[in-house]
Amino acid sequence: MALRRVGRPRANVSSSEKALMAKILDGRMVVGVVGLGYVGLPLALEFAKSGIRTIGVDVSAEKISSLNAGKNYIQDLDDAEIRRVVKTTKMLSASRDFSVLAECDVIYVCVPTPFTANKDPDISHIVHATQEIARSLRKGQLVILKSTTFPGTTEKYVKPILDATKLVCGRDYFLAFSPERIDPGNATWTTHNTPVVVGGVTSACTDLAIAVNRRIINEVVPVSSPSVAEMEKLLENIFRSVNIALVNELAQLCDRIGVNIWEVVDAAKTKPFGFMPFYPGPGIGGHCILIDPYYLSWAAREVDFVTNFITLAAEVNESMPFYVRSMIEREIARQPVTMKSAKVLLLGMAFKKDVDDLRHSPALKVAELLHEGGIENISYFDPYIPSVDVHGKTLTSKKTLTPAFIKRHDVVVITTDHSSFDVEMIVANATVVIDTRNATKNVRGPKKNVVLLGDGK
Ligand SMILES: NC(=O)c1ccc[n+]([C@@H]2O[C@H](COP(=O)([O-])OP(=O)(O)OC[C@H]3O[C@@H](n4cnc5c(N)ncnc54)[C@H](O)[C@@H]3O)[C@@H](O)[C@H]2O)c1
Fold this sequence. Notes:
An 8-stranded mixed beta sheet has the order 3-2-1-4-5-6-7-8, sandwiched between helices. It has a 5-stranded parallel beta sheet with strand order 10-9-13-14-15, covered by helices on one side. A two-stranded antiparallel sheet has the order 11-12. The chain contains 14 helices and 15 strands. It is of the alpha/beta class. It starts with 14 loop residues before the first helix and ends in a 5-residue tail after the last strand. The protein has 2 domains: 210 residues, Rossmann fold; 192 residues, Rossmann fold. Helix 14 links the parallel strand 13 and strand 14. Bound molecules: nicotinamide-adenine-dinucleotide. The site of nicotinamide-adenine-dinucleotide has 27 residues, from helix 5.
């Protein structure tokens, strides 16, 4: 294939850039993916499926041996596809040894970006991965950071580590930030058809990152710098956090004034412009919406700026599990049981519907709060989460949800609205159902035993 530039023609194109662009365009490039979790493995699979040799690196021995045995461990991915690219086409292999990255022309970094106990950013995984990449960095390699992080991470933390090799960024090696938009559980918007943003340190870096992404993604949107791309990702997640907080606050207000927030949102969303529906719930979770806003508020503090929206949204969203606990306690108080003897059943433990991800799950937080409040008999059912730890006590999910099991509880709470739940059966058999997700919306007949969060009753 002829060498086709992606950006505007530039006068100084280094030999490393030319060589790498040629490999990207004709598919001879080898792709490395560091961090093979919810983000990294789907990405590695896409490249491998498109016939590009891909090498994954992870610190988890379990993940590496599973992958090299052709076994999938990410819910959304097709087991047969993983098996095929590992065992049949041999386009995907995995290792714990970072030295394999020397072979790669393009290296994506998809490691976690958690926060500390004080909710400050913890970019140690990014730093560690970069240090490992630097050990074998060579001319003609492109590094693309995908982990969500605060503006400035790529240029102030990643680049200096790579520059220490004495290779020159934009001439010898290349560096860009390109945030991940994957939405686990979403079958409509996948890696292919979700546009991706890229911001390179130099225009050569951006051009190369665009070309690589175009091998597997339909639309690539360039921005002027890594910091714009980093900030763009945070805006996406803060936008969700703030809007969810708004509707969570209004749900609490609606409970006081006797108006159903769900009906209000459904009515508002008939406006064809200027409104986008968000729904209340027991709180937010996962590795993104809860954590990422804190990355920006931390970065803002460094420049004496207070991000009030972020703080307020976090305060409201993180208060929701406490609100749900108070709903549960109220329903217990209405029955001839004590807090100590009351039996509470939580339906759904994952942080959102139809996923097996427990990270920062509001349902788990509710379980912890109930435990702290002296409620000792807590059970749960979640087909995706076999067991959880609640303050040192292991709870195991019931294998199947039967009418008899539901009847045995004083309060049943729908904490996560998995599609597989037989909501009619739940409502028909429970003494009382606290529905935090409007999962009972389509249940026919009387729903006198349903207490819906935000319905004003
Ligand atoms: N999960 C999502 O839906 C999602 C969406 C968009 C962005 N993100 C962002 O993508 C990044 C990765 O998230 P994830 O959900 O894939 O996390 P994950 O925990 O599922 O996967 C991360 C992987 O990195 C490995 N790892 C940790 N430290 C490492 C190191 N130093 N070197 C090599 N491997 C290492 C872990 O073993 C794990 O397999 C985070 O910054 C997250 O905010 C996640």
